[in-house]
Specification:
72 residues; mainly alpha; 1 helix
């Protein structure tokens, strides 16, 4: 009787550990996917802000070069 209980307990522990590994792998996959998506959004936002900044600077430089802008 004791051997059966020990065997059942050992099987339960092994199955439990295998389940934990699967959860850990799923969590890692979700985490990496989230990280990569956030990184892509951040880089896109950064690039868009730079493009707007450079475009605004160019327009400002052209407007002030003609002597018509800025109130200076």
């Amino acid at each position: 009787m004791t051997n059966k209980k020990t065997l059942v307990a050992a099987c339960a522990i092994i199955i439990g550990l295998a389940g934990c590994a699967e959860f850990k792998d799923a969590g890692r996959s979700i985490g990496h996917g989230t990280r990569d998506a956030a990184k892509s959004v951040g880089h896109g936002t950064r690039d868009a802000a730079k493009a707007v900044g450079h475009g605004t600077a160019r327009v400002w430089d052209e407007a002030t070069a003609d002597g018509e802008g800025g109130g200076e």
